[in-house]
Specification:
Radius of gyration of chain B: 14 Å
Strand content of chain B: over 45%
Order of helices and strands of chain A: EEEEEEEEEEE
Distance between the termini of chain A: 38 Å
Shape of chain B: globular
Structural class of chain A: mainly beta
Helix content of chain A: under 10%
Helix content of chain B: under 10%
Shape of chain A: globular
Number of strands of chain A: 11
Structural class of chain B: mainly beta
Number of helices of chain B: 0
Mean pLDDT of chain B: 94
Oligomer: heterodimer
Largest interface: A-B, 22 and 27 residues
Distance between the termini of chain B: 36 Å
Number of strands of chain B: 11
Order of helices and strands of chain B: EEEEEEEEEEE
Largest sheet of chain A: 6 strands, mixed
Low-confidence stretches of chain B: none
Strand content of chain A: over 45%
Chain lengths: 112, 118
């Protein structure tokens, strides 16, 4: 049972464009929704996270939109840059200190 | 802080051999996680410790896998005997409920151990 579904698998965006990655979850007990960024040969690193008491969180060019009723959340990367080219994972957990359930990942390529 | 430290970074072994992966969590973190990453299955939890005690090992594939956390600064994941299907990247992560802002509850990942079983 895949508890967190992520789409698309891959994404190509022009430099300066908006990258959008979507995730849906099933377990209503999830209370913490982070996005991780992973570069080749490196471990995942936290990009931004949200809890369901807010519908949106913005940090610089990165925004999470959260829809609790639809059990969906998404990552928006504004003004996408070539340096943003990486694999992005959405995840969910019951709290920040409990195991994360990851989506399958989205490979983002930002082309000039 | 040096972050989460894992060793070895790469391991190539033959089927049937014992493999031991090591992890040093961030000082002061009381939760430690072992995840495995493969192309087919993505990132999956293997086992999770809290205050050095195993809390959830439901992700451990089978009895060939075992994990220990003898103290707050060290954990091992052992595979015996290893099989080609164990080839993957194994990540250790740690977190703490304390701290403030972004650091609180964030799981910090190590660089991973790339295991190849021939």
């Amino acid at each position: 049972q895949q508890q967190v579904k992520q789409s698309p698998q891959s994404l190509i965006v022009q430099k300066g464009g908006i990258s959008i990655i979507n995730c849906a979850y099933e377990n209503t007990a999830f209370d913490y929704f982070p996005w991780y960024q992973q570069f080749p040969g490196k471990g995942p690193a936290l990009l931004i996270a949200i809890r369901p008491d807010v519908s949106e969180k913005k940090e610089g060019r990165f925004t999470i939109s959260f829809n609790k009723s639809a059990k969906q959340f998404s990552l928006h990367i504004m003004d996408s840059q070539p340096g943003d080219s990486a694999t992005y994972f959405c995840a969910a957990s019951i709290s920040g200190n409990t195991p994360l359930v990851f989506g399958k990942g989205t490979r983002l390529s930002v082309i000039a | 802080d040096a972050g989460v430290i894992q060793s070895p970074r790469h391991e190539v072994t033959e089927m049937g051999q014992e493999v031991t992966l090591r992890c040093k969590p961030i000082s002061g973190h009381n939760s430690l996680f072992w995840y495995r990453q493969t192309m087919m299955r993505g990132l999956e939890l293997l086992i999770y410790f809290n205050n050095n005690v195993p809390i959830d090992d439901s992700g451990m594939p089978e009895d060939r896998f075992s994990a220990k956390m003898p103290n707050a600064s060290f954990s091992t994941l052992k595979i015996q005997p290893s099989e080609p299907r164990d080839s993957a990247v194994y990540f250790c992560a740690s977190s703490s409920p304390r701290g403030s802002g972004r650091a609180r509850e964030t799981q910090y990942f190590g660089p991973g151990t790339r295991l190849l079983v021939l």
